[in-house]
Write a structure and sequence with these properties.
2 copies of one chain form a homodimer.
Chain A: H1 3-33, H2 40-58, H3 61-71, H4 82-99, H5 102-125, H6 128-149, H7 155-160, H8 169-191, H9 208-222, E1 229-233, E2 238-241, E3 247-251, H10 258-276, H11 293-307, H12 311-324, H13 326-329, H14 334-340, H15 358-374, H16 382-394, H17 410-413, H18 420-439, H19 443-448, H20 453-462, H21 472-480, H22 487-501
Parallel strand pairs in A: 1-3
Antiparallel strand pairs in A: 2-3
Chain lengths: ~500, ~500
Amino acid sequence: MSAMDAYNALKTHLKEHAHLVSFSSLAEWDQETRMPKGAGDTRADMLGLMARLTHKMFTDKKVGDWISECEDSDIVANTDTIEAANIRELRRSYDRQTKLPKEFVEEEAKISSKAQQVWVEARKKSDFTLFAPMLEKVLDLTRRKAEYYGYEGEAYNALMDDFEPGATVTEVASVFDALRPDLVDLVGRIADAPRRPDIKIIKQPYDVNRQRLFSEMVAATIGFDFNHGRLDEVEHPFCTGFGPGDTRICTRFYPNDLGEGLTGTTHEAGHALYAMGHDDEQFGMPCGDVNSLGLHESQSRMWENQVGRGRAFWTYFFPQAQRIFRDALGDVSLEQMYHAMNNVTPSYIRVEADEATYNLHIMLRFEIERAMLAGDIKVKDIPAEWNRRFKNYLGIEVDKDSNGCLQDVHWAMGAIGYFPTYCLGNLYSAQFYAAARKALPQMDEQFGRGDFSGLLGWLRENIHRHGARYRAGDLCKKVTGAELSHKHLIDYMKEKYSEIYGI
Amino acid sequence: MSAMDAYNALKTHLKEHAHLVSFSSLAEWDQETRMPKGAGDTRADMLGLMARLTHKMFTDKKVGDWISECEDSDIVANTDTIEAANIRELRRSYDRQTKLPKEFVEEEAKISSKAQQVWVEARKKSDFTLFAPMLEKVLDLTRRKAEYYGYEGEAYNALMDDFEPGATVTEVASVFDALRPDLVDLVGRIADAPRRPDIKIIKQPYDVNRQRLFSEMVAATIGFDFNHGRLDEVEHPFCTGFGPGDTRICTRFYPNDLGEGLTGTTHEAGHALYAMGHDDEQFGMPCGDVNSLGLHESQSRMWENQVGRGRAFWTYFFPQAQRIFRDALGDVSLEQMYHAMNNVTPSYIRVEADEATYNLHIMLRFEIERAMLAGDIKVKDIPAEWNRRFKNYLGIEVDKDSNGCLQDVHWAMGAIGYFPTYCLGNLYSAQFYAAARKALPQMDEQFGRGDFSGLLGWLRENIHRHGARYRAGDLCKKVTGAELSHKHLIDYMKEKYSEIYGI
């Protein structure tokens, strides 16, 4: 077998693998959106079976052999080709998936499942001491996992690599550390600002059917292709896909809040536009997908925040919103609406946080989980440490654990190293957006007349079509000419909020 | 490996096989109900892959070995056990699936796909001569298929066995031949009847949302468990399922017709009640499923016709319908509604035919396809033969091929031997229903107060829980004490229509 035969065999095999994964994704989508309640057991059996099958298919010895054959050939000679990138990323995934012993994976699944149950109870009672013993076990497991993976520097690097390949804790911390003081200062100044948006504009009755219609109009206008996708309603918004030509977004609409449903839509549509922009020919291979959560989040955040909370966006959509929601918006001005969409108020819960304070929620988690993995913070001391930092960063006292260190499921799931990707997403988003604005000086004017194709085209060309061809950090340098920096995000926020809040 | 080990290995293997088939069924359901239009190509790739995987899994040599091992053991000693029945039916399926050479299956798929395209064109132009050459090819293929399968008597037996295991063309023809003259006579007398139902009662504006609500109420009342199922809307009604605890029905609602949506619901709910009544422990094995389309249709037809068009059913539901559809039904009486639901009028199109004439549509097709397979009718003579019989049976002249022999897709698909199962379903339905009435003398009174659990319980006990344990004909004898006869269907119709039509 020639190396090219091996490469093609890999491609065929992994395309079938990807189609099987699509079946699982479809079953999960159905579970969230349509499945009758009583079908949970059968669905779990189906998904368990498919997880076993696809894992076996990906970790098959012949996959490793094909990768090796390609690595020993001209295919990887020029590291800048799509083929070389595919082999590089396949090696990474294959090694990681084959490094964990079967017994470890089973133990991890068991403890993670148990930990999540205990976490639900502990959160309900708002008592961290109930959860602490399980968190010790999870920490022990994740440390062992890091050993199996192997790493340089801190064990945290090995874990974060599951979500953000190639990122190192030192680099991430240095960007976060640069952002934090400026952001704490900005959030503090906003809290004392002379004027505040009237958020009642957004938090008043909005007919849910009309919200759905408005969200569909917005999604279609920014480029979401309803011929190759759909929008449904769920408890927890997400984006998924079942192969080329079928990308689905799910959001939720509240009868007394226009913001949640709309920003849920622009956020998930941002993820979807990324997925819709992949190279279909690469389906099943790394370059037909993306393995950096930070990059993925950069796309959802850009459409949600830089675009969807921007004045130019509302210049186009506000008159339409006024016609659809006559009672709510008849007497409201564009400026009032734009301000209301950009309210900043420190609050306890990350998933409800605004665009600015959100990053402080993430940094806090990153710092604590890094220290706890390294053993620099004892598990029992986490609530005090959480609350201390929270007060410093956000200026408010945490009243109870359920509003503090017990609010997220990530640690119970064993997903340590996941949190920073959210803030990385915001940072990449701002840096990419700044580059796009430079390349497209007419962008705001285009948005103002409902034309988002300039930005989408730029993203397609520079980011979407590459899939995992470039690691996030490398892509950032390639596209923006510079390493990831806190500068773009804080500049963007300062500019926006100083005007809105008069600070 | 002991025989019991082989049996258990079969069960485990086939349960996984069934879960994978469920993934396909879910993808097909999604395709009919939700999938964005542009996702067709990817979906076809997914379904093609899964069809290959599941076929390979079922026809695996080890499956044949396990079956043989069981056949050589005590497991099949008592032919009346579930285990023996499973092995009997698995042998049948395994042999059939392994008897067709791969090249033949591929050729069949290709010609069937082509024939369906040509059929669409021919039907559009209402020109049978366009379709005739493809039908010749399909006939040639189905004859070869019958040879691969092997058969006694006519080749038709081998083909019908795909849909109705164990039924023979001689038995089916003898029941149909007995039914036909009485039914032709009854339909003729109805056509000349002194009074006719006022069908405008049903064919007037009915709000579609309220129809959906009413249909859900009806389905839930007769026993459809919405905790383990759901009702959706589609172009062509169907029932499907994705393993124990997840059975879904799909129907369609018309804004100017209450009947279609409602009978679509009771029909598909009948299929669903059957599926919901299977033994979950047997999931993946023949006794956890059913392989006779006639039996399946007997359940859908019973709930659609014997129950859902019955006076007792409407005694309970009509007052509710009046409250939901005030404008349409405010001035209508229960008797008028009951009569309108039982309109009989000969018409061209099978899928739009009423309960009585439907059977004549089927017999006509059965007779023609049997003769055409045997070579007793030439393909070119089909339209004339069709129209001649149609006039004899239904009393009306066929005006064009698209209203006659070009209306159904079955022949283009190569599904020769399928049609009789529809009429067998009606015959079994009537015979089972007569037995149920005898066993449950209070049944009508129970229906009248909305209690359908007596009938459902009887069906569960006598029919549903057995799956494919008994062949349809054997189950009929076991449950009703007699072989399938035309008597019950014609008696039921005579009784009902003589009263409604005053004949």
